[in-house]
Amino acid sequence: MPDKSNPMDKKLKQAIEQRIVIESARKTQVDTLSNFAAKLSLSCKGLDIELDNRLAKFRSALNKGVSFEHLSPLINDILVLLKNQEAIQLAHQRDLRTSVKNAGKQLQKTNGLPDNTRRTLRNLLDNELDAVQSTHGFIPLLNQLITIYNQALHTKFNALPAEQHTDTPAIAKKLLELAHQLVLEDEAAEQIQSIRTTILQSNTVDDLLAAAIEIISIIVKNINNERQSAQSFLVSLNKTLEELHHSIFSTSKHSESMGIEFDVLNKRIKTKINNLNEQTKSTTSISSLRKLVDHELKSLGEDFIAKEELERKDRKVLITSFDKINNRIGSLENKLTKYKKRLNDQRFKSLLDSLTKLPNRAAFDERYNHEMHLFNVQASDVTLVVIDVDYFKSINDRFGHTAGDITLQVIAKALQKSIEKTDFIARYGGEEFVLLMPGTSLEHAIPQLEKLKKNIKKIPFKFKDKQIEITVSLGATQFKQGDTLLKAFDRADDALYEAKNAGRDRLCIRK
Ligand SMILES: Nc1nc2c(ncn2[C@@H]2O[C@H](COP(=O)(O)OP(=O)(O)OP(=O)(O)O)[C@@H](O)[C@H]2O)c(=O)[nH]1
What residues does the GGDEF domain cover (predicted)? Predict the structure, then answer.
């Protein structure tokens, strides 16, 4: 059926349909544009707050279907901001290139990098770096660089001296302390000294483990020696006592048998004299009397000689036996003296710090106890001082542990020289010393301590051709009524803490 509708209506209908098509096309375009703008703005997000704001406005305007005329100023603003961003990005890129290049060059100087890694690094710096066009392009390069850095750190770590390893200083320190504390003599002392040197120079955990095992074996050997020496002394003592017992027993047995022989002889002599008496009475002629006397005297003479011989033998046996006993006792006494000396030496040595030769903490504890006891009995003045070397760690770090050890020895000597005869100084541990000043009040101690502090500061230390000034901080207190060992020490320690906090190289006191 033909279309009977009005041509105007028709045109209108067509126009409406076209309009719908255009509208929908525009909507699709706007949607695509909004999507694109949203994506773009999200990828730029975070670069610049201002840009973020403009892009957010732009997205919302697009969504609302704002006309192009209204969008135009927004777009212009965004363009200006984007241009700024571009300049900023370029500057960043330049900076990034320079720092990557510098870091890489620094890395090239590291010793011990594997050849492969070194080649990769050279290629990265000479070619790949120049080819990078965007900031994002740096990311894979930076990744590579970080990997190489890791390898370099690993290599470097393994090559570091043991005391600088992050997980080895504690072991090395413990070992050194242990080696310090070992009180051994002669050969063992030399062995320990050489192990100490090994520890100081070692750069691997393996070296430290080997040193630890050596130290343990020396300790075990020395314990065995000590035990053997004690055992040999006891065995010798036992043997001497046995011999003594045996000698006394055999001497008394001998004396017993000698006694019987003497008795027999004496009886014989007595009988003979009696006989002689009786016979003399009954004899009638001189000649028979002479005969009788001759005979009996001869027989008596023989008996006397036998008696004399018996006595001589007896004396000889006794003298030999006493000589033997004497010798035994003499050698036992010798052993006893040596053993006593050994024990005394051990005790003396175990109270001495092997590095500084000052009394050690054990010796200090003993003396401190004694002084506190005296104070509680007679309440005289006693000043207690804790002295700590300032920034000592940096001496070790800059000049090595051996330089640190020497520093401690020199300081110990200077401290010893700076105190009175009646004072008592000890190495408390590490770089800390303690001083007891019996009979000195805190007030009187102050000028002495200030002088001591100056004496240390004046020592002309020189390491690696560098003149170094070393200072100490001091905390002092005086014993007071009601003090315990801990209370007094804590007060001195608090004063030291205050001296450290106030800048070091000073004396602080706590009353
Ligand atoms: N060479 C050597 N160093 C030791 C010895 N005993 C302890 N040390 C070191 O002494 C250092 C003490 O360092 P810290 O306790 O940090 O004190 P410091 O560096 O002196 O700093 P302040 O006390 O705060 O002034 C540590 O590095 C120890 O390893 C030793 O017998 N010989």
Answer: 380-511
For 142-184, the pLDDT digits (tens) are 666 666 666 665 665 565 554 454 455 555 656 666 555 555 5
The residues near 365 (Cβ < 8 Å, ≥ 6 apart) are none
pLDDT tops 80 at residue 359: yes
Length of the chain: 511
Protein residue closest via CA to atom 18 of ligand 1? 391
In this prediction, residue 166 carries a pLDDT of: 46
| For residues 481-486, average pLDDT | 94
Same domain, 230 and 246: no
SS3 285: coil
404 lines ligand 1 (CB under 6 A): yes
Nearest alpha carbon to residue 395 among 328, 469, 336: 469
Q: Is the CB of 355 under 6 A from ligand 1?
A: yes
| CA 438/CA 182 separation, integer angstroms | 30
CA 41 to chain centre: 60
Q: How far is the CA of 394 from the centre of ligand 1 (A)?
A: 8
- 309/445 same-domain check: no
196 lines ligand 1 (CB under 6 A): no
57 lines ligand 1 (CB under 6 A): no
Closest ligand 1 atom, residue 388 Cα: 23
505 belongs to a structural domain: yes
- Which residues lie closer than 8 Å to 449 by C-beta, 6 or more apart? 385, 474, 476, 507
CB 374 near ligand 1, within 6 Å: no
Number of domains observed in the structure of the chain: 5
Beta-carbon neighbour count of residue 294 at 10 Å? Answer: 10
163 CA closest ligand 1 atom index:
29
Domain for residue 26, yes or no? yes
Among 163, 392, 497, residue to substitute to test ligand 1 (most atoms within 8 Å of Cβ): 392
Please give the structure tokens belonging to residue 213: 């095992």
Place of tokens 């901001």: 81
Q: What share of the chain is helix, strand, coil (3-state, %, to 5)?
A: 75, 10, 15
Beta bridge partners of 352: 359
- Interatomic CA distance for residues 296 and 278, integer angstroms: 12
Does the beta carbon of 322 lie inside 6 Å of ligand 1?
no
- Give the domain range for residue 177: 169-237
pLDDT, tens only, 111-146: 767 777 788 888 888 887 777 666 556 566 666 666
For the segment 48-78, what is each residue's pLDDT rounded down to a tens digit?
Answer: 677 777 777 777 776 676 666 677 777 777 7
**pTM of the full predicted structure?**
0.44
Atom of ligand 1 nearest to the CA of 403: 1
Cα-to-centroid distance, 6 and ligand 1 (Å): 108
